[in-house]
Structure formats: structure tokens, C-alpha cells
Design a protein that fits this description.
The chain is of the alpha+beta class. It has two domains: 6-45 and 52-78, Ubiquitin-like (UB roll), CATH 3.10.20.30; 86-160, [2Fe-2S]-binding domain (DNA polymerase, domain 1, Orthogonal Bundle), CATH 1.10.150.120. The chain is built from five helices and five strands. The chain has helices at residues 28-35, 86-97, 107-114, 123-129, 141-160; strands spanning 6-13, 16-23, 54-57, 60-63, 76-78. The chain has a five-stranded mixed beta sheet with strand order 2-1-5-3-4, sandwiched between helices. A hairpin with a 2-residue loop joins strand 3 (54-57) and strand 4. Helix 2 packs across helix 3 and helix 2 (86-97) crosses helix 5. The protein is globular. The termini are far apart.
Length: 161
């Protein structure tokens, strides 16, 4: 493949179908930030070590810096900007309510990773579920508290239905 090769992809991002022609070497995070203007996902280390670029691909956590946009054809991507996902919204509210963030740089990746944890996850399960997401500002205790709080709210909401 030559450096100037391009690929056409059709991907659903936050419920919206997107059709683009991009350079073949374009990463998912570049697609989101540079091509689609979705800057909520952050680029940290660029080598898959920090988790700041975590998004969901087909509802599973994925590192945006390691996935090529060409791999996304026909797939679904969820970012922190998804306004329809109640799990993401609940986690955002819980992070704010419990001061589970400081600078906020890692928060989108933390929230996306946590969004797929079961609502009744205990502290050990929450920590295990966030193991690939690094925060350089907090001691993680407020992050775990936020995830636990959001989970409790989901359980309480589901039992009222």
C-alpha cells in the first residue's frame, strides 16, 4: 500500500451513519477528532498505554490510537459525545457529583470503559475494568466512587420499571 492510498468507509458514529474517504493510515482517533470534529476523545500516549482515547467499537472498549479507520467499515463507534447512551450520561453526572475528575483529560476514556461494567460491580471489579485507563491527577478513589454511584442509580432505575 502506498502512503497516498485511501479507503472509503461507512461507519455509524453515535448513531449517525458517516461515509468518508480517508488516508489508509488514518487512526480511529484521527477520524473522530480531525475528520468528524468529535474532540471529546483525547489522544494521550498514542501507543495504547494510557486509555485516554478509549471509545466503544460495536459496544466494546477499544483504543482509538491503535485502531485504523479502515477497520471500522460497517461497524459502530460510540464516543463521549453520544447523547443517547444513558450509561454514559449517568456516569458523566456521577463523575461531576463525586468530583471524580480533576483536569478531565482521562475522563472520557474512563467513562467509556466504565460504561460497560455491570451496574452492581464492586470496587475490585470497577478497578479491574478500568485497569487500562491511567489518571495522573487523582488517587482513583473518587473515580471508583463515581462508577459505583452511577451503577447504583442504574440498578435503582431498573427496579422501578
Amino acid at each position: 500500500m502506498t502512503p497516498s492510498a485511501t479507503v472509503r468507509i461507512t461507519v455509524t458514529v453515535n448513531g449517525r451513519v458517516v461515509d468518508r474517504v480517508v488516508p489508509a493510515a488514518t487512526t480511529l482517533i484521527d477520524l473522530l477528532r480531525s475528520h468528524l470534529g468529535l474532540t471529546g476523545t483525547k489522544l494521550g500516549c498514542g501507543v495504547g498505554e494510557c486509555g485516554s482515547c478509549t471509545v466503544l467499537v460495536d459496544d466494546e472498549p477499544a483504543l482509538g490510537c491503535l485502531v485504523l479507520a479502515a477497520e471500522l467499515d460497517g461497524r459502530s463507534v460510540t464516543t463521549i459525545e453520544d447523547e443517547q447512551d444513558e450509561r454514559i450520561r449517568g456516569l458523566q453526572q456521577a463523575f461531576i457529583a463525586t468530583a471524580g475528575l480533576q483536569c478531565g483529560f482521562c475522563t472520557p476514556g474512563m467513562i467509556l470503559a466504565a460504561s460497560r461494567l455491570p451496574p452492581d460491580a464492586d470496587d475490585a471489579a470497577i478497578r479491574a475494568g478500568l485497569v487500562g485507563n491511567l489518571c495522573r491527577c487523582t488517587g482513583y478513589s473518587k473515580i471508583v466512587t463515581a462508577v459505583r454511584r452511577a451503577g447504583r442509580r442504574r440498578v435503582n432505575r431498573d427496579t422501578r420499571k
